Amino acid sequence: MLKKEDALFDNKEAMSNGIENFFKTQVTVFDQAVQFEKSLHDDFDRIAENEEAHKALNTIRLITMVQTGSKFNYNRIRELNPLMDTVRTAHDKMLEEKRAEVLETVRQCMEATHTAANGDSKASHLIEKSDRYFSQCKEKIAELKSLALLDAMFLPMCQYKDDTVSNIESVLEPPAPKPQVQPTQQGKRASNCKEKGCPSL
After folding, report:
1. 154-172 and 124-143 are packed helices; what angle lies between their axes, rounded to 10 degrees?
2. E strands of 23-131, at which residues?
3. pLDDT of 113-165, one tens digit each?
4. How far apart are CA 17 and CA 169, in angstroms?
5. Count of H helices and E strands in the chain?
6. How far apart are CA 57 and CA 9, in angstroms?
7. What is the pTM assigned to this prediction?
8. What is the dihedral of CA 56, 57, 58, 64, to 10 degrees?
9. Using CB atoms within 10 A of its CB, is residue 91 exposed (0-12), middle (13-18) or buried (19+)?
10. pLDDT at residue number 4
11. Model pLDDT for residues 62-110, shown as the tens digit of each residue
12. Integer angstrom CA distances of residue 162 from 89, 114, 120, 141, 166
C-alpha cells in the first residue's frame, strides 16, 4: 500500500513538473514570437509581397494579440514556431537578394572612383579613403537584418561616390594657364613713345 502511495506521489510530482515546464516553454515561445513580429515591423510591406509569409505573419500577430477582457487561447501557441519558420525562410531569402543588390551597387561605386583616378598617384589618398568607406559598407550589409535599412544605404553610397569622383577630377585637373596681362592704355602710350622717340613731357 505504501509503495502504491509513493508511486502515486511520484507521478503527481512528475506531472506537476511537466506542467510547469510546459507553461515555461509556452511563455518562451510566446515572447519569442512577440519579439520576432516587432523586429519585422519595418519590413511588413516587403513581406506582404510573399503571400505565404504575409499570411503567416498576420497569424502570428493574431495569436500574440492579447485583448483586454478576452480569454487567451493557449492552444494556439504551438502554431507559433512553424509560423515563424515560414516567415523567417521567406525573409532570409529576401535579405539575401537585397544584400546582393546593394553589394553590386558597392562594386559599381568603387569601379567608378578607381576609373576616375586611373591609377594616378595624386588621387591615391582619395581612393584609399573611398575604399575604406565602401569596405565598411560591405561589413554593414552583412550585418543588417532589415530590408528597409539595406534599402536606405543606396542613396548615401551613390552620393559619396559622386563626391569622390568630383574631388578626384579636381585633383587631376591640369592647372589653368595664367591669363596674359594686358598692358594699360598708359602703358601702351609709353611703349609707343619709346618706339617713335617721342619727346618727354
Report:
1. 170
2. none
3. 999 999 999 999 999 999 999 999 999 999 999 999 999 999 999 999 999 99
4. 74
5. 8, 0
6. 44
7. 0.71
8. 110
9. buried
10. 41
11. 998 876 667 777 788 899 999 999 999 999 999 999 999 999 999 999 9
12. 36, 12, 18, 20, 6
Find the farthest-apart pair of alpha carbons in the chain and give their distance in angstroms, rounded: 150
Q: How far apart are CA 50 and CA 147, in angstroms?
A: 14
Q: Which residues are CB-neighbours of 141 under 8 A, at least 6 positions away?
A: 99, 102, 103, 106, 150, 153
Q: Which three cell numbers stand for residue 62?
A: 493574431
pLDDT at 65: 86
- Residue in this structure with the C-alpha cell 509569409, named with its chain if needed: 53
First to last CA, the chain: 147
Specify the residue for cell string 516553454.
25
* Residue 61 Rama label (left phi>0; alpha psi -120 to 50; beta): alpha
For the record, the C-alpha cell of 166 comes out as 568630383
Q: Is residue 33 predicted with pLDDT exceeding 70?
A: yes
Cell triple for 130: 573611398
Question: Whole-angstrom Cα distance, residue 84 to residue 48?
Answer: 15
